[in-house]
Design brief:
The chain is mainly α. It is built from 25 helices and 2 strands. The chain has a two-stranded antiparallel ribbon. Helix 4 runs antiparallel to helix 7. It is globular, with a radius of gyration of 25 Å. It starts with 15 loop residues before the first helix and ends in a 9-residue tail after the last helix. 49% of the residues are buried. The N terminus is likely disordered.
Length: 568
């Protein structure tokens, strides 16, 4: 790997030494930023608009759902009191903030949207900084007249523009539902504040880590820590005297996601919280620029472990897949199990929730003709677990694309390892890991329900079966990712994550949004039987498994015939 700095030629005004001396030289460190900004925009001309469009659509879907489910003040009071008093709801939704439609929309949507916005922003910064260094693109750009801070400045500028567009879209959606202007603007800015904070964290991570994967891992860990701190703060918060508001404990104030929720749009509109976003972002960006001057292009601040001299236990593609994916499997299994335990713990409250909310009763009744509303509630909750677990399937299969981009696949294929065996290792591990996660999720929810209610049989037949029946849809989605990897490798990441997000929107919100059936059928999760509210239907399950096998087989056949695609 080259140790060439971005600018260290004696010519012109682009010397980093001159840049550090101040005056006009300081600005020379930014030479080339406008062109790199336009280049980054061109590279992300599809990916970022898709991200923004999906996020705005998700907010619109949640706002529509809240408006439909809690039409009366009585329904909103009951829901807010339930959210403030129920520990599981505090952990996953955040602090209850009154009974207005806007406040309830933000409580229901902010947590999940903040995580997705953090991922969008962080990955974009890493993609235009650390990823470019890993693929050699940064060294190529450095051969031109490019200032030392130009690439990082261009990446942050693109993410800032994306978050401003996102904020405008979010604000527009909320205004479309006749919500107050002040709360709508505060909501949009809160989303953008979270995005820019994690973009700044990614800027530091790109200087510290030596690989794109490690930098994205740091960003993911930061998002996870932010969610955990926020969840702990809300779990140990106190219910206000009004009983429809939760006062969060101090850990929530250590989390950027918690800051966004403490803005309390449509309830208190605490605009002073934005100073926290701005302060942390400025400090982290300044740290990232300083670190940029103290490292070589292609190298991070942290040393890369060399590993053992002998690759014991890596004598097959399957063993290699186990080594590559075992960490993510453990992380996904623990995360999904925690969610399943939370759903199992509130399962005994299903009857109370349905009794207090007629709109929810009507929505669930539209999903089943047998009238088993509690069973339909179980199926509705575990469908979210199904889509979440499918995230492991998509991530594991897309790792094959990362191995190809990084150039590690080409020397591997020079050994007696065929393309089919190498890809088969990833596919088999993804399928086996997906099965294990679904089994763990079903058992976690069923056992938790059994401990809470004393009825383990209902837990297994209800929550356990509702989780397992989602498995074929996740495998069908994985088959599509295998085909995308073989057919359009440069777009595999976009297609994979886009298909998962589309499945979430169509499968969970499509019926509420009254979308046409042919649109709903695009999602494999639409075809999953509504077990336990409806009898098990083996035909759609068999079709989904057949689709998964056919798409995977087509992917294997195409991958054997195409050229390796190095670079993004």
């Amino acid at each position: 790997m080259s140790t060439t700095r971005a600018v260290d030629r004696p010519a012109t005004t682009t010397s980093p030494e001159r840049g550090r001396r101040g005056g006009a030289g300081r600005w020379s460190a930014l030479v080339g930023t406008p062109r790199l900004f336009r280049l980054a925009l061109r590279r992300d001309r599809i990916l970022l608009p898709v991200w923004i469009g999906v996020l705005v659509a998700l907010l619109a879907g949640i706002a529509s759902t809240i408006t439909a489910l809690y039409a009366s003040q009585q329904d909103r009071i009951a829901a807010a009191m339930f959210g403030a008093a129920t520990p599981a709801t505090r952990v996953f939704d955040g602090p209850a903030s009154g009974t207005s439609l806007g406040a309830m929309t933000m409580v229901e949507s902010f947590g999940i949207l903040a995580i997705l916005i953090g991922l969008m922003s962080g990955q974009a910064v890493v993609r235009h900084t650390r990823h470019d260094e890993e693929t050699g693109r940064a060294e190529l750009l450095g051969s031109a007249v490019v200032g030392h801070h130009a690439r990082l400045t261009a990446a942050l500028s693109v993410v800032l523009l994306a978050n401003l567009v996102l904020a405008a879209g979010m604000t527009g959606v909320l205004l479309a539902y006749d919500l107050p202007v002040r709360g709508s603007v505060a909501s949009g800015l809160a989303f953008a504040g979270v995005g820019m904070t994690f973009a700044a964290i990614a800027a530091v991570a790109a200087q510290v880590a030596s690989t794109q994967r490690a930098a994205n891992g740091i960003v993911g860990a930061a998002i996870g820590a932010a969610f955990l701190l926020r969840a702990i703060g809300d779990l140990f918060g106190e219910v206000a005297a009004s009983e429809v508001e939760l006062v969060s404990a101090w850990p929530s104030w250590l989390s950027p996601i918690g800051w966004g929720q403490q803005v309390r749009p449509f309830h208190q509109d605490n605009l002073e919280v934005f100073a926290l976003f701005a302060g942390l972002t400025v400090v982290l960006v300044a740290v990232a620029f300083v670190l940029t001057e103290h490292r070589d292009v292609g190298h991070g601040m942290l040393p890369v472990p060399t590993g053992p001299a002998r690759a014991d236990g890596l004598d097959s593609p399957m063993a290699l897949a186990w080594r590559l994916h075992r960490g993510s499997l453990l992380a996904w299994a623990v995360g999904i199990a925690v969610v399943a335990v939370a759903f199992g713990s509130v399962g005994d409250a299903a009857d109370d929730i349905l009794t207090e909310n007629e709109q929810l009763q009507e929505a669930l009744a539209s999903l089943t003709s047998d009238g088993g509303l509690r069973d339909a509630f179980f199926a509705f909750m575990m469908a979210f677990v199904g889509v979440g677990a499918a995230g492991f399937t998509v991530q594991t299969l897309l790792r094959a694309r990362n191995e190809e981009i990084a150039g590690r696949l080409e020397p591997l294929l020079a050994t007696p390892v065929s393309r089919s065996r190498w890809l088969g290792g990833h596919v088999v591990f993804a399928a086996a890991g997906t099965v294990a996660i679904f089994v763990l999720a079903g058992l976690s929810a069923a056992v938790t329900y059994g401990f809470v209610t004393g009825d383990f049989a209902v837990g297994v037949r209800g929550l356990g079966s509702a989780a397992l029946v989602q498995l074929p849809a996740a495998l069908a989605l994985g088959g599509g990712v295998v085909l995308a990897f073989a057919l359009a490798p440069r777009w595999a990441v976009t297609i994979g994550w886009g298909a998962l997000t589309l499945s979430l929107v169509l499968g969970q919100l499509g019926a509420v949004l009254d979308l046409p059936q042919w649109v709903l059928n695009v999602s494999p999760f639409t075809h999953v039987p509504l077990v336990p509210a409806a009898p098990m239907a083996w035909l759609p399950v068999g079709v989904l498994l057949a689709v998964a096998a056919a798409l995977s087989a087509a992917g294997f056949a195409l991958f054997r015939r195409r050229d390796l695609a190095i670079g993004a």
